[in-house]
Structures are given as C-alpha cells and as structure tokens.
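Worked example

This section walks through a single chain of length 420. The input is the sequence exactly as stored; nothing has been trimmed or padded.
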Amino acid sequence: MNQPLDLGATTAPDSIRIIEDYEAFRRTTVRGAPTVLQVLPALVSGGVERGTVDVARALVEAGWRALVVSRGGPMVHELERVGARHIALPVYAKNPLLWRSTFDALVDLIWQEGVDLVHARSRMPAWLAWRAARRNRVPFVTTFHQRPAAANAAKRLYNSVMVRGDRVIAISHYVADRLLNEYGLDPARLRVIPRGVDLSLFDPDKVTAERLIRLSDRWRIPDGVPVVMLPARVTQWKGHGLLVDALARLERGSCHCLMVGEDEGRRSVKAALEPRIAKLGLTPHIHFVGRCDDMPAAYKLADVVVSASLDPEPFGRVMIEAQAMGRPIVAADHGGARETVLPGETGWLVKPGDPGALADGIRAALTLDGDGRRRLSERAVGHVREHFSRYQMCARTLAVYSELLDGPAARADDGAAAAV
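Given that input, the structure is written out below as tokens.
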C-alpha cells in the first residue's frame, strides 16, 4: 500500500499511542497565522463533512485559522467547538440566479479574512470557489470524494472542476487512477490521502456495557443470535437488496441483520425491499434501524460488518471503521475496498453483485472460532491504526497546504481542465 508520508506507523496494536501533535506545521505568514477556507455544500452528516471537521480541528491545533463555508447543518456546532468559524452561503445551489451573488460573497470573504488557501470538497461549490480563489490569487486545492465515473460529456465537464486544483487530493488509489486515466490530470498535482478514523472514538476498549445495552434494547436484538450489520444509507447502489438475497442463502434464523442508516428521501428502496423480505421469510430476521448516533457501539454489537456496494466505493469509510473496532468485514472486491481490507487477515473480499459469494463470505466470518476471531480482531485494529488514522489524514493534508504556501504554487492553467 502506497503511503505518501512515513508518519511513524507501527504494527502492534497494544504498542500504539494515539498522539495527534501538529506542532510541526505551526507557521506564520506576513499577515500572521495562515488562514484556510474549506468549502462544501452542507454540514449534515457523512464522510465529506467528517473530514472537513477533522482538518479544521488539526488546523486550529497547529495554530492556523480555519474557516468553513456551507449552507450549515447539525455539524456546525461540532465545527465551532473545535475552534473553527462557519460562514453560511448557498454554495450548494444549482440555481444560476444565485451564482453571481454567491461568487461575489466568496471573493469578498477571501479578501476580507486574508484567506491564504481555498480547499473545495464538492463539485458545485468548487466551481464558485475555484474562480473566487483565482480572483484573489490564492492557491486552490480540491479533494475528490465522489465516484469519478461520468456517463456523458456534460457530466465529465461538471466533474472536471475537481481536477483544476493546484493540488488534487484523491481519497484512494482507485480514485487517483481514474482521475489520471479519464481526466488527464497532471500527476505532479495529484496527492493520495486515504480517509482516517478517530482512534480515540473508534476504540473497542472505550465502548461501555451501558452503551451496548442501550442500543441492543432500542433495536430489540435477540439474545444468542449473531448480528450481521450493513451500515449505509438506504440507496439502491449500497447493496441492501443484494444482502437480502445473500441472507436467504443462509440457514433461516442463523443470524439477525441490522440495516443501519438513514432512509429519508429514499423510502422507495426500503418499501420495495420489504415485500421481498417477507416473501423470503426473513421479516423477523432483518431490521431497518435508521440513523445511529453511536456507531462505535453499533460496530461492537456486530459479529460481521458488510459492505455490499454494487458500484465501486471511492474509499469506503465503513471498512476502516469496522476494522478499527476489531470486527470482521465482508466487502465487494472492487474500488477502495481493495486498499483497506486484507483478505483472509482482516476480512473477506467477495465477487461484486453475487449473492452466493456474499453469503459464503458471511458464513466464513460467522464460523470463525474464538482464537480466529481474536487474531482477526488484533490484525484489523493494528491495520487501521497503522494506515488509516485521523492524524495521518490530517497531517498529510496540512503537508499539502504547507507545500503550496512554502513556495510558488504549481497553478493549474485556468483553461487547462482535464480532457472532457
């Protein structure tokens, strides 16, 4: 696995000390502490939002100023608690009537706040932020979180703003390869920075019995039955239907399945599945529990965690969160999963879209004996702590910022977008 920086990783789980010290990045500019502006659609929930808050926290701890522009959301409170500042602007809006006023507001904000670098994390905000950064002659960074596939030329053009950064961060080598091959990105501007887990939060030893009991009672988990968990928003491509078909191939009642994730706005997917679940006789064994506010405890309740995505995951945060909690992961063998799951050591990679292969993977995980589960758990925890910590993600991101601020930025030509 390619690691951009050696940040002192170790391999033995019990020898790892969780230290997040960003003093090496402490610096000043002619105007004082550097100021970084991150731009994204909203601060509601999800991996993009989590990464934004994590980097903002690292910036503050390094003595920098952290600003975030979005339409707002529940995570604004968390952002402000770490010492960052939020500014609400409709950068998410696809209404052309709002673009000019939003662009002008961004230009003014960058100027008035003395912003030294702009970092965009989503496509619509990136179009506005890219031009606003250019107007103020400050470096522009993007992180490509999305699936890079584009069905037509218009979609490719829309995506292309994400490769116009002075530095382009890909969240996996899978995404990086797609950007290089499909968008003509200059490799000199590309950096691969995998997503990271908060090891102080996703720590099996820190989840109390009270937290486990609270979730178990709320979800009415039957005693003595192994738990199979799919943590994902209820959408077609996340593979809920595939998992249902896989469970039908296992002995009836041999496990209890928890579908953990929001289904608001996607109730048709759940509604379409429920008659199928009933026809297969699985209604007592499958429970859609909705959003969970304590995912570390949820993972610890699981005997097996599944990622059944029909399309390749750009990265797949579920895979590293489950392993951080010492849980076996069964995932589709494509996309980012190939970079995070060690087959036969921390989990299983199975043929994508194949319910029989998924059932075999779940069965193999459920039949591990005590020693096998312990060894897998130790290896999984050590693997995530070695390669996928929040500190590593944030330190590598601050290194990209420093690279641009320390010397002449290798600016992308305004007209040199990727081939579209």
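What to look for: Residues 145 and 171 are 6 Å apart (CA to CA).
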